[in-house]
Amino acid sequence: MPSKVLPNTPAAQPQHFLPAAFIGTAALFILLEGLGIQGLWMASLKALPIAILGAIALRQLRGPTRALTLAALAFSALGDVLLEMDFPNQFIAGLGAFLLAQLIYAGNFLRSADFRNRRSLLRAVPVLVAAFLLARLILPASADLAPAVLLYLLAIVVMALGAAAHRGDSALLFGGAVTFMVSDTLIALNRFIAPIPLADTAIMLTYYSAQFFILYGIRRTQA
């Protein structure tokens, strides 16, 4: 008869260590960024929490869902690095990486979506209304970047709608998708409309939370 793995044995420790490492590294980056610390190494630190989520996904997910989640996290980490660096068209490059991440997430969620129920409709309507209002506010102010911003907005809305209609226990997954929309809304408002106090802290806090909720939401739907 197989022996039971106790909570404090070495075999069980990674299950607790990786989430703690994610929280610790995310908090460290947010703190250092808030203090104005700069340097190329900060780009690596920014992506490290997402890499840790990738390690969790590798352990706890399975099948095509695991492959797609890892791909979305990889492009998210790439976007983190690009947005932290300083080079021409840096914002477009970072936006492109996150666009691919959103499209992969969307494809992943739509594989298990069912729009033919009341729950999906109740979740989808606020997402569509918020996206419409955001588009009316942001697109005129984004000038030459309007096509790229619109494309990204459409991608994240499809991602959120896929999470909204996901079968099973998808409340945490949908919460993560909405939190991702909040994070990107803060970026857009801060960049195109007016500076937001403590914008970087709010953006990164909602961004890391969104990725964490999405991963564990996916895991819950697979349970």
What's the layout of helices and strands?
Layout: H1 13-34, H2 40-60, H3 63-84, H4 90-110, H5 118-138, H6 146-164, H7 171-193, H8 199-222
Helix pairs in contact: 1-2, 1-8, 2-3, 2-8, 3-4, 4-6, 5-6, 5-7, 6-7, 7-8
Pfam families: YhhN (PF07947)
Family: Belongs to the TMEM86 family.
Subcellular location: Membrane
In short:
This protein is mainly alpha-helical. It has eight helices and no strands. The chain has one domain.
Give structural notes.
With 223 residues, this protein is mainly alpha-helical. It has one domain (13-222). Helix content is 78%, strand content 0%. The chain is built from 8 helices and no strands. It has helices at residues 13-34, 40-60, 63-84, 90-110, 118-138, 146-164, 171-193, 199-222. Helix 2 runs antiparallel to helix 3 (63-84). The two termini are 24 Å apart.
Q: Alpha-carbon distance between the termini?
A: 24 Å
**Total discrete domains:** 1
Poorly predicted tracts of residues: 1-12
Which band does the percent of strand residues land in? Answer: under 5%
Q: Give the averaged pLDDT, no decimals.
A: 93
Question: What overall form do the CA principal axes indicate?
Answer: globular
Based on CA atoms alone, the radius of gyration comes out at 18 Å
